[in-house]
Design goal:
Shape: globular
Structural class: alpha+beta
Order of helices and strands: HHHEEHEHEHEHE
Strand content: 15-25%
CATH architecture of the largest domain: 2-Layer Sandwich
Distance between the termini: 36 Å
Number of strands: 6
Low-confidence stretches: none
Length: 188
């Protein structure tokens, strides 16, 4: 059964289609089976959506090894605008993973606040920014200033980064209704 369109930007046919497009435009190229596993969407639904998206010209498939990989159709006249919209509505998660996965001093990354609320279906006005919590002992937001600037440039969204120590008493409260991005095994 299809989930209704996201309250974050209710332009897409369904929340699943939006997440799939965001992953294709901002994630690592993948087969339909890999996308289904990564997004937690049934493989039959992913196959149907990929066929629709390819039929509409939004994506194309390329043969890589023995599999077909879904890639963005970057030659569309509106591809830059679509890429920016998709970064805002769901592509931020793979962008964040790519940005912070190589930083072993970071224990956890998650999105909280109004953006996460809209993704979770909690109604309200459109968010003005994306609030990101970075759980780390040895970093400050100034240590991550370059990353924030790169994220803003690639997504077109205003990013607010908050570095939180692992023993912060408000951490559990911040995690409520959050969107998990990255969590190391050694994280507390």
């Amino acid at each position: 059964m299809a989930m209704p369109s996201s309250a974050l930007l209710p332009l897409f046919r369904s929340a699943q289609q939006m997440r799939l497009l965001a992953e294709i435009f901002h994630g690592v190229p993948a087969t339909g089976a890999e996308l289904a596993r990564r997004l937690g969407i049934p493989q039959s639904t992913v196959a149907r959506e990929l066929a629709r998206l390819e039929g509409s010209g939004l994506i194309r498939t390329e043969i890589v090894g023995t599999g077909q990989v879904a890639v963005p159709a970057d030659d569309l006249p509106f591809a830059p605008a679509l890429r920016q919209l998709l970064a805002y509505v769901g592509g931020i998660v793979p962008v964040l993973i790519a940005e912070y996965d190589g930083r072993p001093e970071i224990d956890e990354v998650f999105i909280f606040g109004s953006w996460a609320d809209r993704v979770n279906g909690i109604s309200g006005p459109p968010p003005n920014d994306i609030d990101i919590a970075i759980v780390a002992d040895s970093l400050t937001r100034f240590d991550l200033a370059e990353e924030r600037l790169r994220l803003e440039a690639s997504t077109g969204a205003k990013i607010d980064q908050f570095v939180v120590e692992p023993d912060n008493e408000r951490l559990a409260e911040l995690r409520q209704h959050s969107i998990p991005v990255l969590r190391r095994q050694h994280a507390r």
